[in-house]
Fold these 4 entries.
Entry 1:
Amino acid sequence: MRRSKAKLPGLTRRDFLTQSAGSLIVTSAGPLLAEPAASLESPDSQRAPWYSSMRRCGQINFNERDPLAMDVTAWADYWASLKVNAVLLNGGGIVAFYPTRVPYHHRSEFLGSRDLFGEMTAAMKKRNLRVVARMDCNYAYEEALKAHPEWFERNADGTPRRHNESTWLYKTCMFTSYFTEQMPAIYREINQRYAVDGFFTNGWPSTGALAVCFCESCKKVYRDEVGGTPPGETAGSDPVYRKYYDVYIDRVLEVWKKWDGIAKEKSPDSVYVGNLGGGIRTVKSVKRLAEVAGWFNADHQGRSGDTPLWDCSQQGRVAQSVMKDRAITNVTGAYSNSRPVWRHVAKAPAEATLWMAQTTASGMVPWFHWLGGAPEDNRWREAGRSFFTWLAAHEPHFQNKRSIADIAVLYPQSTIAFYRSGNASGSWRGAERAQTSEYLQGLYYALLEGRFLFDFVHQENLSAETLRKYRALLIPNAAYLRDAECARIADFVAAGGSLLATFETSLYNEWGDPRPDFALSSVFGASAAGSVIGPFGNSYARIEQTHPVLNGFEGTALLPGAENRVPVRASEKARLILSVVPYYPAFPPEMVFPRTPRTEEPAAVFRQSGKSRVAYFAGDIDRTFWRSGNTDLSLLIQNSVRWLLDDARQPVTVAGEGMTELFAWETAPGYALHILNYNNPNMTRGFVRRFYAIGPQKVEFEVAAGKKITGVRALRAGGDLPFTQRDRTVRFEVPTVVDYEVAALV
Ligand SMILES: [Zn+2]
């Protein structure tokens, strides 16, 4: 798709989308998309690859013992019954499930005379399903370690790294020839012997933190390319780490491209796809990974602990922010991937269903995953089958052409990856690292409560072309931004766009080197006047004057203050709307009174220039909201967004009771509004046990000028919905939403 785009320099993005969507429809007309499609072969060798139009994937993850018990026909029938386009099957890597001849490629001890991978591949092909060989490049047996000690990661003392549970396996190093010779030899063997359509690697490269290894190859990399010794700490403040980060990502891309090239030796239509994902908490540059990825697979299988329900939708938004129109899949684990984990029992079907619903609502393709070829728990099967067959029955309505949101949320990857709080409390470590995403999490929660439609825009994708469709850009403490990124944000505002930003946004470069003032100081109308103050509870924002952002706060002169704030000076004589009331003791009650009840320090600055409106909050109100759940802070954020839009309507509004997440897409046949029902006591602590239906939901949907809507259909409930159309506005009511509803406008 990117190549097609490069070929069409004279077209606008809209024209391009229309064209590429058109080609999607043609391709997907094939039976199950599975045949090599000679009849669809276009003289244009650049036609979209098979995976760009896949809509459903399945994966059965073999274990070493499976050759003893696996029923090939039953499995192939199961996946065919889900109407999947592609199935992931274990080829090799740690364990070969076919009679490999590659040295040190460990055959399953239970393989005997079987060729399980070959049998399964043939069975899938017989049912017209694509096959992607699922590989594992991360570990190998001691036999390989003895023959090729240079393939393996080492601790600082030189010892190899054993797997923490399966201690007979050793961790391989991606800077060694294991990745450039051994894995390629295995891929080529599989390519040669089997009708595979691509390769996927479990676990690699991931989007998580970078590993530091002390093997001979890595020592050489540090010496020759990084210029030093292995970085002691994975912190953006360390200049060695910064260099290492670039060298590391370069190596990932080099390996990815090499493996994709090997996949394509078989057919230009074949592909290598790496393991990505991790939701909003990414460390490796998803922007750079996406540059080589024809297909982005988010291995984001479920949630545990107090992870909010919308974690999968967020994954979709992150992937969309870097992949544009290319293929994105997300894995749903059918097993109980809670903490503790159970690999061989099903998770609650309601939880699995809502995860798959988020996958499709956010524009990704669901990939349903079970472990082990001889399950003793079979309850998971129906959750996948019923959702996937429903998807297949309505497939054209999931072929998205574009999101129709007009609000952008900046995805602040540098801050999420590297940020250390600006105050004196020092580095965040371990699980606390999740704190860097809490600014985004708080803004997100408020946007869901306000029922806004929005997209993520990656901080490295802020081109005028990308931003043109958005009326407002919301920035949840993007403390770490490049100069060029700040310039693009300023350009967006100068061109009439509206902006909300919080806390330390633009106060550092992308690695965390402080600037003397916000790079966006003139946009905010505020300058930093000192170091971050906090964390303090029991501080406040005083309402000094009426303003639209304060609607609903009649009856109070005080609002809850942010836990941390940058002390700021308004750079022009702006009206003081909200002033800071500094912290005072919260205990004991006798001591609880303000020592400085009134200050001139702005808690926020609101500016207006032409069409553009800017709201800058000096405190971390987004993160404070996420941590406290305080409803005033959510309302303040929602009011601010409405003010940015000048109270003009969004392209789609959905009014009704209940906690929802909304997506709206222009689709191949028209439009689709996706409503996810999060109204559930398990919204912020899994697993969802059952659904609590909401409704009715009154919808107003703006369609393109001149577009005549002829029907509105509720795809999940089934049935047509009465509607009216006046000019561009289509009005209808969704009577109820049980788990998820898709209203299709055609
Ligand atoms: Zn190494």
Note: Residues 1-44 have pLDDT under 50 and may be disordered.
Entry 2:
Amino acid sequence: MSAISISGLNKHYARVHALHDIDLTVERGEFFGLLGPNGAGKSTLINIVAGLTRFDTGHVAVLGHDVVTAYRQTRRLIGVVPQELAYDPFFNVREVLRIQSGYFGLHKNDAWIDELLAALMLTEKAGANMRALSGGMKRRVMIAQALVHRPEVVVLDEPTAGVDVELRKSLWAFIRRLHREGHTIVLTTHYLEEAEALCDRIAILNHGKLIALDTKQALLMRGIGHTRRVCITTEQPLGRLPETLEKKVRRQEGNQLELRLDKSTDSVMAVLDALRAHGAVITDLNMEGADLEDVFVELTQTQKV
Ligand SMILES: Nc1ncnc2c1ncn2[C@@H]1O[C@H](COP(=O)(O)OP(=O)(O)OP(=O)(O)O)[C@@H](O)[C@H]1O
Ligand SMILES: [Mg+2]
């Protein structure tokens, strides 16, 4: 039995075909990444799995239970942290978590609530009103809210959006702990280094289509076959580059330049010549293999609809 199984899933919003024939299985105990540009359909897919959004055709099940016909069971098995911050301004943090526990018939849940508050560094905010919390704190409360009933499958839609670096690290540690303790984790994120650090298997959606589904290693290998990263340090900042080079820029900051080259069509020597012709005095050069960002860019830019 899989944690999540999706077959033949289609979803339209009026004229937008938000999900096209999606077939996707997440196994129990996996740490799964769902990636894609804005509007790719990630949240739509997650909301369907959570039983919150209707769909046109297909089958979606959580731990073998159909999300439409067995909605009550699937709701208990899954905990979803939505992308949009939504909260009731009249309750404090502990009240929100108690109310959520009550939905699942859990009336003596304070020991677990305390544990969640501590793990999410919210203990001191337990009595604070929701409206008095910062955005990052509200997001942490929403994570706790999704976990009050200790769901086996945990789905997090951009849990680290708008969260500062330190808190992001502690959230990673917390999500890793949930995974170690046996939870299946599905994560969407726009921070590709986050997906690369955490996820074992990754799906990439683009314009509602599943364009890649593989282990992280296999995806990285795919990129290494095509892409090479060249990191260059120059004596002086380079300013605006000629158009032919500009297209290959991955990052440019002061006298540091990082280019993304296609192994089959771009010659490193030709690029260095072009830089020299532009007046650059190169003081250091490093070549590296592709990372997940390279693979993501390659896949999502070459498969335009
Ligand atoms: N309630 C809605 N009504 C109409 N169209 C919608 C609705 N929700 C999403 N869409 C459309 O469906 C498509 C997929 O949106 P979705 O929110 O699933 O993307 P996403 O991958 O989560 O994007 P992001 O990275 O920005 O969160 C987009 O074209 C979006 O405009
Ligand atoms: Mg989204």
Note: The two ends are 34 Å apart (CA to CA).
Entry 3:
Amino acid sequence: MIERTLAAAAVLIACEGSHPSTPARSAYDPEPTVIAGAFPPDRSPDGNSVILQAPRGLIVIDTGRHPAHQDKLLAFARQVGAPIAAIINTHWHLDHTGGNAELRAVYPGAEIIATRAVDGALVGFLPKGRAQGQTLIASGKATPQQIEDIRLDRAAVDDTRNLLPTRPIAQSDAVYIAGRRLDLHVAPFAATEADLWIYDAATKTVIAGDLVVSEVPFFDSGCPAGLRAALGEIAAAPFVRLIPGHGEPMTRDAFARWRAAFDALLDCAASPSEVATCVAGWRTGAAAFIAAGDSARIDEYTTYYVTEILRSPAAHERFCHPLRAE
Ligand SMILES: [Zn+2]
């Protein structure tokens, strides 16, 4: 009997890499909790965070950028009386990873589960953004809010120990995290060089990261063809609820409507149509997902993305291949 118990413990350690001394929680709510990311006009955004309760603690999917967002995550952990056992980063954008350090300052044992795409970002994309931030501060033209956001991002990029995965994910697989089974899907060349999206069969929920951004897809490091392919794979999952990287949770029908608008935007950008026609097409097709009063700002983003990413062969070349030093 003792041998069997030890063998079981060994399997547990091998499978989960978690602390065997952490007692399993006997009862917990399997339903996901969404901590909505903010995107006020004068600040960089926070991505949505999703908290899943598990037998050995909490799984936090994406950690936001601002301390106010992380405070909400930590308050939830205190409220349910469970430690944060694991962080999953859907992708390395700093509005999804910037809070890793704050959470691990309180829960140092929390593992970081992500793809290795951040390796490529750290040799080119992120240092370039860091330098651009420094230039903006030096110019004296940055607002106090911009300066604070630039400093937050700089701290996150410098703190690679809290940015790199402790448990790298190379391929799609069912994995146990803190004792809870999740289906992790790797989407190559999507919002980043390799994104993760998660299917939780227990609650039929897809956690999509920035493969789905309600108001306008963020193409800043995105590969349009890879994003389109990933949305097709998501559509094949039997989910009833999808939590996007930014914006409200979606039903299957809502996701289908959003996806149709996404495909129409890519098709328009690939056609000889005027940029304004593509922008107007998105504004109409995705109207249900664009907050009241946000139309003008979203038009600006869409115009930029059509011009600088979707119609730029250099952008396709850069983001549909592994990132390099620049
Ligand atoms: Zn995001």
Note: The pocket of zinc ion is lined by residues 47, 93, 95-96, 210, 218, 245-246 (CB under 6 Å).
Entry 4:
Amino acid sequence: MNILRPDLFVDSIKDIPLEKLQQQGIKGFVIDLDNTITAWNSYEVAEEVMDWVKKAKSMGIALCIASNNHEKRVMKVAKILDLPFLSNAGKPRRKAFKKVLSILDISVDELAVIGDQIFTDVLGGNRMELYTILVVPISSHEFFGTRIMRRMERIVIPYLQKHEVK
Ligand SMILES: [Mg+2]
């Protein structure tokens, strides 16, 4: 079960404690797109997400979007936020996170993963021994394959929260 366990549960990206994590040595974040930055297949970025990105950048934190979605979709949002990106990332495979490490030029202990899915974002990050942060999905509207994984998450997440290790 521990391979599915995020290091931190938050409601939204804007609740991530940037100062605290920076003090702990985090220098960069790899951020999922669908239902983490925007609703699934939406191009609308909430102002609070914009502000969070701006703040992270001003603190010298490196950011990269990594999504399993296609290039056109990911590029468009990356442009709005002026961030580097990786599309068709293939999370939870390690290769995705290795690519991000080279894009951001930081090491494994300096990168944290932000995402809304246990079986792609958290599992992938944990396989690489990265710091992992699970956000609550922005919307319940999503890809069919994802909806099936959600059923499994509904079983796993309450268990993980109940047995949270501090
Ligand atoms: Mg997602």
Note: The mean pLDDT is 94.
